[in-house]
Design brief:
Elements lengths: L2 E10 L2 E11 L4 E5 L6 H9 L6 E6 L2 E2 L10 E4 L11 H10 L9 H14 L15 H14 L4 E5 L7 H18 L2 E6 L2 H7 L2 E6 L2 E6 L1 H6 L4 H6 L4 E8 L2 E4 L2 E4 L7 E9 L4 E4 L7 E11 L2 E8 L4 E8 H7 L6 E6 L3 E3 L7
Parallel strand pairs: 3-8, 3-9, 6-7, 7-8
Antiparallel strand pairs: 1-2, 1-4, 4-5, 9-10, 11-12, 11-14, 12-13, 14-20, 15-19, 16-17, 16-19, 17-18
The structure holds adenosine-5'-triphosphate.
GO molecular function, one term: ATP binding
Keywords: ATP-binding, Cell membrane, Membrane, Nucleotide-binding, Sulfate transport, Translocase, Transport
Organism: Kurthia gibsonii
Amino acid sequence: MSIELREIDKHFGQYHALQKISLSIQPGELVALLGPSGSGKTSLLRIIAGLETLDEGTILFDQKEVVHLSAKERNIGFVFQHYALFNHMTVFDNVAYGLKVRPKKLRPSKKEIEDKVIELLALVKLEHFAKRYPSQLSGGQRQRVALARALAVEPKVLLLDEPFGALDAKVRKDLRRWLRKLHNDYHITSIFVTHDQEEALDVADRIVIMNEGRIEQIGSPVEVYENPASPFVYDFLGNVNLFKGRLRKGELINGDFSFKVPGSNLDSEQETVGYVRPHDVAIEKEVRPNTVKATVLHIHPIGATIHIELHRPDTNDYLEAEITKEFFNQLAIEKGDTVYIHPKQLKVFVPEDFSI
Ligand SMILES: Nc1ncnc2c1ncn2[C@@H]1O[C@H](COP(=O)(O)OP(=O)(O)OP(=O)(O)O)[C@@H](O)[C@H]1O
């Protein structure tokens, strides 16, 4: 099922929560809505589900308008952050629920329901838990029951609102991998809301980055991470170092460091910011042209990567660098050492209103 959103607008009283949101989702895609708290992710998901009305715009499923359809008629599976299971029902009955409450004409036979529930419990690896009650399960297990329950009615679209938000880091990671696998096997068009960038980058085919009710960027995880379209996306996706300065004849002057901004010959009095990912901070032991001096403040090994915190005396800025363990051993640096750094890559967003 394809989903198309056209210019969706939504106010809550005076507050403009969604501003002309347009988005096309291909059949079988797994899309993440990623953004900070209050950016409008949940409101958009609820509007797609038919749980919330929109002010303007329209929604099409397989090119057919669904705005006038109720949530039930849209044939959507919904999974919330808090499992929302029926506590008085066993796992089996929770999963069977959506099928059992169908009108008689559409209801599968008892045997068909049983087969389906057994199949789904095997899928979520809870086949031995059918007789338990939700209170006898861990958080991760409950969320898997919630997913099995959402899938039981064979939805055309699966919507997940921070599905792993309430779980601890390790369980989240397992469930993420598992959601990816489930999606590969079932190919249900799925949209999930998260404010966790790692989760979005790890799981989604495409990421929609939202900020203050607008879409900032849409792209594959690699596209949005490697080529952020705005300073907001740079800041929001992963750690980043800021090189703040002024433009002089197309060069960003930042303390003792200058950087030629490709394609620009501008002067600007406005503060201009260069963005540098930690893995793009090069560290040298010897001084070279156009490097700046920095002091090593902390060294943290995280797996095969070494995170290094640095301080620049010229600008009084703190920086983070990431290097491989191998390179760290070659460099042989210690806390307190003086090193020389330069960005291997730096992205500058030139201010719009500049003076030449
Ligand atoms: N029913 C409502 N009435 C009034 N304001 C609302 C309502 N629902 C959401 N809002 C407001 O709309 C904005 C967007 O909320 P929404 O829940 O969509 O954001 P979100 O990106 O999902 O945030 P979070 O990650 O915190 O869940 C927020 O400022 C919120 O306060």
